[in-house]
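Hey team,

Filing this mostly as a record. A colleague (T.K.) asked me to run one chain through the structure pipeline before their review meeting, and I want the input and output archived in the tracker in case anyone asks later how it was produced. No errors, nothing strange. Just documentation.

Input sequence:
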Amino acid sequence: MEARSYPADEAASLEDIRFRQAFASPYFYGAFSIADGSLIGFVNSTRCGTFEEESMSLHDPTGAILAIHSVCVDEKHRRRGIARSMLKQYATKITIMQKNNNNNAITQFVLIAKKHLVPFYESCSFVCDGLSAIVHGAELWYDLHRDVTTLPRTLMDSPVDVGSTRWLKLQTLTYLDSDSKENAWDRAIRTTKKSERGADAVAILATVDKDIICVKQFRPPINSMTIELPAGLIDAGEAPGLAAARELLEETNYVGKVEHVSNEVFLSPGLSNESVVIVRMSIEGKGVGEMESSEVGRGLEVVKLPCASLLRELDRLEKEDGIRSFGMLYTLAVGMEMGKITR
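Output structure:
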C-alpha cells in the first residue's frame, strides 16, 4: 500500500516500515474494513527532538515531536473521506495517550507534503510553515505542523468542601483547561457517594400491557408534581439489579425481573457527578405488601402511560395538570417518536 501511494523515490522501504512497527509501534495506526477486517489505510510516525532529514529515519522515544511519515489509503477506498477521518482519529488517539504522560510528552505533530496536498492537511488542523529544507525525492515539499492539544482534566485531589447538609455537599474543584490553565468549578455531590466511580441510583424502565410504568410524585426543589420512571438510591454494597427490584416493589408494588443493566450515565454533569444505571425489567406480578409510608407521604402514585403515545401524554400532563416530566423519561419519549420517523 505504501508503494502504491508514493513514487518509488519517496515511498518508505519495507525495512523502514518494519523499523517503525518494531520501535515506534504506539504510533502506528491502521484503518480496517468493517465488511471483512482487511487493512484499508494506515498512518505511521516516529518521535524526534528536531524535525530534519536525518531524524526521519530514526526514533527517539523521548522526542517531543511526532513526525508523521505515511498517510496511506488503499486505492479501492480513496475519495471517501477515509484519510481525513483516519488522520483526525490518529491525532485524537495520540492526544489521549498524552493525558497522563507528564514526562516526555509529545507537544507537536509535524509532516511534509507536496503543494497540492497542503489544503488537505490544513483541513485537518495543520498549519503550513512554508517550503521545507528536507529533500525527499525530486519534488519540493512543504512543512506543516499541528500542536498537540492537552485534554482538559480535573485535579481530583483538589475538591474543597464549601458546605454540607445531611444528604448534599457543595464542593469547588480545580481543573486544567486545554491550555493547562487552572480554573475553578463548583459541583454538588451526594454525601452517600463514596467514590467518583459507581452509580448513585437506579432508574427503572418496566412495561406492562404496552404501557410504561411511571410514578407521579411531589418534588420540593421545583415545587411541583413530576412524572418519572421509578428510581431510587443504591444501598452500600448492593448490586444495581437488586436495587432496581427493591425500588420497583417499594414504589409501585410490582415484582420485576431484571432484563438489562446499562452503563453508568450522568444526569446533569455540569452541576453534579450524580449518576444512575438504567435497569430494564419485565413484570412478573404484584407484591402482597403496601408501599412504604415515606413514598405515600410524597404523594407517590403509580401511573401507566401508553408506549405508543408517550410523548403526547407527557405534553398533555404538563399542559393540563402542570405535571413536570423527568428528563430521562422525556428523552425516551422523544427517541421513540424519532424511531417512528426513521423506521
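Quick notes for T.K.: The chain has a mean pLDDT of 89. The CA atoms of residues 4 and 75 lie 8 Å apart.
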